[in-house]
């Protein structure tokens, strides 16, 4: 494996993804990520000079909606996903800006 | 001897666009709906839902870009900005990092120290987040996603401003351009225009920038002015004490007159931007661009110049009237209906401004129609109502946009110009006020004023004061 993921990196990725990993899980994730990066490195073998970066694989552009209200009130449905609710709103742990 | 410092300021201005629906779904953007009732799978980030761009958002963004002399990005894309926060149900905000819709613009501002250009680095389209409500004294917060997905443009300036005056002039200029375009109402108090201030200080003559901070939670022009003064002083104090300014985001507390660090850039979030695969690229065509260009309105500077040519009204009036596109529209439409410009201007400058102030309203909130204002002016021109009654009718028009002609008819407010009826009342007043009559005859000219007042009162205000005066003099 050419790519070695450090403990700091896996710790940082865990923070970004809001995941708490056990030591075993960290080791497994380090191995998996290393292999993924090795796989991606293969792309580096290609000469991409002069090739536009591609973000979409379909040759489709300019898909628009008109500015017309079609939305329906989904409050009941979306609040079913809420572990806690109050006054028609989601209850979340206290946050500060 | 103290060092001389210079303040360097750049702004990030978020403007809520005046579309009927959200940026990527057909939910209403109307303000004030019951919590979470303007929501759908798209704006609440449900897996498998597909966002589709509202064409009007692109039209407004391009229009603002053209008005600020920007280059329009002909091939542009949306990116995902990843972060976890409860106001953001997708765990990413759809924004533009790599190919924003507008770049490299500028606007001209004018302050007491003269005219200058402020560069626009870029303008990008993005979606707003939901609203968090922090219940005092509880251990939880509440989230309402009605605002989630409301379209925004973020206008990022170059660090070209050097004082609070320049910042306010720049914001006024942006607000005016955007209001004239109808792209937003730009109300800071209501959050449809929000400005974050990036500020650093450096010694005068230095070419390098100092370390900057970003200040948030600025809800009015006056709060911005205070925050700039406060942050400038804080940074200079740090430097004078031999300390360093830390690059961080600070929250301005206008009541305390202080700012607090929100989070430092050291634990700054890593947003891991990448192109949004759900939204296909946008190609701004020649036709689209030509259409937007053709629809650009006459902006304020041109309007002022034209008014000076066309209308015989004071420059001060022109300045106030053109300060609001809505007010200028009312002015022009009323004049087009045949009313004399000076009279239209007077109603706007005196009674309208007074009522706006009394009711804490903006010119944008004026509801009476040009047709009704023209009608009222016609009634006064024909002397069908006197000026006191006209003011009364106007107040009603201001409140409920009533038709003045019908209103005057219904309420029986027409001036009594039937000389017979008036003469009878005047005679009664003379008979009932012997003291004043005697005073007048003894040379107390002022006594006639009292008699006019009594006559007007007896006529319930509906007499022509000139005629009353004349009759009194005749009969005395």
Please outline the helices and strands.
The complex is a heterodimer of chains A (97) and B (476).
Chain A: H1 7-16, H2 23-41, E1 64-65, H3 75-79, E2 85-86, E3 89-93
Chain B: E1 5-16, E2 53-54, H1 55-67, E3 71-72, E4 75-76, E5 79-82, E6 92-95, E7 102-111, E8 114-127, E9 131-134, E10 140-144, E11 151-157, H2 164-181, E12 193-203, E13 213-216, H3 221-240, E14 248-253, E15 258-264, E16 274-275, E17 282-283, H4 286-295, H5 300-310, H6 315-322, H7 325-336, H8 341-358, H9 370-381, H10 387-400, H11 404-411, H12 419-432, H13 434-441, H14 447-458, H15 465-475
Parallel strand pairs in B: 13-14
Antiparallel strand pairs in B: 1-11, 1-12, 3-7, 4-17, 5-6, 5-16, 7-8, 8-11, 9-10, 12-13, 14-15
Describe the model:
- Chain A has 97 residues and is of the alpha+beta class.
- Chain A has a domain at 7-45: Histone, subunit A, CATH 1.10.20.
- Chain A contains 3 helices and 3 strands.
- Chain B has 476 residues and is an alpha+beta fold.
- Helix content of chain B is 40%, strand content 21%.
- Chain B has a 9-stranded mixed beta sheet with strand order 3-7-8-11-1-12-13-14-15. Chain B has a 3-stranded antiparallel beta sheet with strand order 6-5-16, with no helix packed on it.
- The relative contact order of chain B is 0.10.
- The model of chain B has no long low-confidence stretch (mean pLDDT 91).
- Classes of the chains: A alpha+beta (97), B alpha+beta (476).
- The interface between A and B is large, with 37 and 53 residues.
- Strand 3 of chain A pairs antiparallel with strand 10 (140-144) of chain B.
Provide keyphrases for this structure.
heterodimer; A: 97 residues; Histone, subunit A; 3 strands; 35% helix; B: 476 residues; alpha+beta; 9-stranded mixed sheet; 15 helices; 21% strand
Briefly characterize the structure.
By secondary structure, chain A is of the alpha+beta class. Chain A has helices at 7-16, 23-41, 75-79, and strands at residues 64-65, 85-86, 89-93. Chain A is flat and about 55 Å long.
């Amino acid at each position: 494996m050419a790519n070695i993921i450090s403990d700091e990196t896996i710790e940082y990725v865990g923070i970004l993804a809001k995941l708490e990993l056990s030591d075993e899980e960290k080791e497994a994730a380090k191995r998996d990520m290393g292999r993924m990066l090795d796989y991606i490195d293969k792309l580096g073998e290609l000469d991409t000079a002069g090739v536009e970066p591609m973000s979409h694989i379909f040759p489709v552009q300019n898909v628009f909606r008109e500015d017309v209200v079609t939305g329906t009130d989904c409050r009941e449905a979306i609040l079913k996903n809420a572990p806690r609710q109050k006054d028609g709103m989601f209850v979340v742990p206290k946050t500060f800006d | 001897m103290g060092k001389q410092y210079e303040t360097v300021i750049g702004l990030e201005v978020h403007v809520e666009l005046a579309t009927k629906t959200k940026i990527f779904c057909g939910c209403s953007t109307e303000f004030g709906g019951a919590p979470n009732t303007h929501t759908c799978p798209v704006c609440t980030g449900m897996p498998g839902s597909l966002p589709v761009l509202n064409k009007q958002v692109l039209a407004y963004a391009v229009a603002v870009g053209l008005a600020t002399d920007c280059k329009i990005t002909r091939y542009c894309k949306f990116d995902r900005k990843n972060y976890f926060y409860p106001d953001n149900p997708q765990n990413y905000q759809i924004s533009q990092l790599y190919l924003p819709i507008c770049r490299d613009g500028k606007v001209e501002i004018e302050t007491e120290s003269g005219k200058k250009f402020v560069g626009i680095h870029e303008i990008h389209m993005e979606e707003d987040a939901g609203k968090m409500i922090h219940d005092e004294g509880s251990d939880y917060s509440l989230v309402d996603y009605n605002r989630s997905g409301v379209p925004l443009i973020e206008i990022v300036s170059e660090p070209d401003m050097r004082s609070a005056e320049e910042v306010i002039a720049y914001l006024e200029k942006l607000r005016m351009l955007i209001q004239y375009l109808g792209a937003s109402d730009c109300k800071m108090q209501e959050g449809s225009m929000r400005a974050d201030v990036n500020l650093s200080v450096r010694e005068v003559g230095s070419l390098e920038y100092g370390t900057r901070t970003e200040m948030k939670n600025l809800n009015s022009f006056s709060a911005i002015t205070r925050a700039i003064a406060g942050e400038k002083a804080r940074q200079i104090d740090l430097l004078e004490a031999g300390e360093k300014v830390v690059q961080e985001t600070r929250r301005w507390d206008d009541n305390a007159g202080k700012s607090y660090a929100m989070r430092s850039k050291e634990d700054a979030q890593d947003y891991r931007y990448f192109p949004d695969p759900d939204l296909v690229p946008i190609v701004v065509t020649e036709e689209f661009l030509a259409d937007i260009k053709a629809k650009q309105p006459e902006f304020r500077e041109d309007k002022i110049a034209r008014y000076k040519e066309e209308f015989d009204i004071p420059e001060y009036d022109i300045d106030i009237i053109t300060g609001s596109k809505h007010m200028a529209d009312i002015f022009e439409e009323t004049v087009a209906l045949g009313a004399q410009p000076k009279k239209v201007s007077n109603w706007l400058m005196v009674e309208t401004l007074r009522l706006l102030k009394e009711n804490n309203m903006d010119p944008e909130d004026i509801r009476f129609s040009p047709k009704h204002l023209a009608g009222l002016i016609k009634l006064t021109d024909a002397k069908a109502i006197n000026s006191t009654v006209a003011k009364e009718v106007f107040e009603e028009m201001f409140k409920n946009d009533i038709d003045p002609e019908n209103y005057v008819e219904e309420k029986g407010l027409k001036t009594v110009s039937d000389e017979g009826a008036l003469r009878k009342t005047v005679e009664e007043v003379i008979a009932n006020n012997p003291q004043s009559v005697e005073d007048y005859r003894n040379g107390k000219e002022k006594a006639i004023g009292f008699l006019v007042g009594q006559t007007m009162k007896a006529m319930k205000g509906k007499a022509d004061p000139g005629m009353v005066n004349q009759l009194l003099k005749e009969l005395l």
